[in-house]
Amino acid sequence: MTRSDLIEQLAERKGLSINTAEAVIHEIIGSMSETLIAGNRIEIRGFGSFEIREYEGHTGRNPKTGLEVIVKPKKLPFFKTGKDLKERILESGN
User: What are phi and psi of 77, to 5 degrees?
Assistant: First the structure.
């Protein structure tokens, strides 16, 4: 599902205009992004949680050349599925 699909589905299900649905989705995603950038965690009960995980730098290898490369420390978003969503997916057989 893309952002456009989500906007269309919200507009259709709740009887909103596309512009209003787009503004709602934009605000939600923007708020979530700002929260993660600030280093805070997001938890949506029944769906899952988002957090930023920090990874230390290390020495790796370029798979093409085999040469050693330095991998810098980094911060990446991480999503953990909520119990309810996990159970619903397992029950659906997909």
Answer: -70, 145
**CA end-to-end span of the chain:** 16
Q: Provide DSSP, 32-82.
A: HHHHHHTT--EEETTTEEEEEEEE--EEEE-TTT--EEEEPPEEEEEEEE-
Cα R_g (the chain), whole angstroms? 19
Q: pTM above the 0.85 mark?
A: no
The angle that helices 3-14 and 18-37 make with each other, rounded to 10 degrees, is 130
pLDDT digits (tens, 9 = 90+) for 51-63: 999 999 999 999 9
